[in-house]
Amino acid sequence: MFKKILIANRGEIALRVIRTCKEMGIKTVAVYSTADAESLHVRFADEAVCIGPPRSAESYLDIPKIIAAAEITNADAIHPGYGFLSERADFALRCREANIVFIGPKPEHLELFGDKVAARKAAIDAGVPVLAGSDRSVTIDEARVFFNATSGPIILKAVMGGGGRGTRVVYDESELEDAFTRCQSEAQAAFGNDQVYVEEFLSRAKHIEIQIIGDLMGDISHLGDRECSVQRRNQKIVEVAPAPGLSASLREKITDAALIFARKHHYLSLGTFEFLIDVNSPDERFVFIEANARLQVEHTVTEEITGFDLVRGQIQIALGSSLADVGLGESHATLNNGFSIQARVNLESINSDGTILPGSGVLTGYEAPNGPGVRTDGYGYAGYEVN
Hints:
The protein is α+β, with helices and mostly antiparallel strands. Helices cover 30% and strands 27% of the residues. The protein is built from eleven helices and 18 strands. It has helices at residues 11-24, 40-44, 63-72, 89-97, 107-114, 116-125, 140-150, 176-191, 248-264, 299-306, 310-318; strands spanning 4-7, 27-33, 47-52, 77-79, 101-102, 154-162, 165-170, 196-200, 205-214, 220-232, 235-241, 269-278, 286-292, 340-343, 348-350, 356-358, 361-362, 385-386. Strands 13-12-9-10-11-14 form a six-stranded antiparallel beta sheet. The chain has a five-stranded parallel beta sheet with strand order 3-2-1-4-5. Strand 10 and strand 11 (235-241) form a beta hairpin. Helix 4 (89-97) runs antiparallel to helix 5 (107-114). The two termini are 36 Å apart.
């Protein structure tokens, strides 16, 4: 058993990991920027280390500071949560070099699935269907050729993208140049890489996720599916598990595709394989779009329909436990007969021109929903200042 885990994250997900660690009898270390000194994850962890000023690049994304915090507190493992460093292969490698266990996939998996073009190629190699698109990053002229060849619409995506950033849909060729420039700019700012690739755009599609987990012995299991079609600015707002309205045959086909893909690469720890179903297709066409090699924000709905603690599973797998050891068979977890729905609540400000930005200020009042069948994962409290 790990004696102490450092959580390289903040807010809700840091609290989520702390909760499971407490249940398992594992000590925790929180890291925080100066802006987060009063955040709940700092209060609830057994120890806390300030790692820098408010800017993420100087705190939560600063790998040497994270490693140093783990070393000075004698943490023997790091849980990256989601976002920040969770999908950085170089961070997982630095943990390995420092003899600290990275609770997550192998660096090679992070590298493969962090590159969306490489993931497309790997899917094709595994016999998993994908959207028509480019097999490398493209120039604006190449994107224009693709648009005309497919008669549009197309979607521009950041090669190293995630979280809806660096993504633009182009319906008319006159929009292409501006969309391409914005996509590159967003990608550079968010991921330090401005490369963009193109795919056909499905105007009517269901967005389906398959939750995968693999152990060190190479066994792979799934924990059901989720639907996240309700989105805004390419970011998921509502999640439902299991995905409603899927025929038994289509659910099986998509799940089998995810398992085949994961098994081909001997996938380790948690991962979410994402697919689109073409609603306009009479033959239930589905395609792979990406894989997220980490714990997802929406892991909560999977936990509710399976009764399986995904964070505990991550920790046990990192310790060398098999799927059988953690209560999972080779094929899948046992699902109950219910549904679980997650709705995300965002603090935002609306400018006079209608643009929406992350909100800030003091939460003068906060009351979490509660009652039978209700779960709240958050980190707000009355009096907390959001920076």
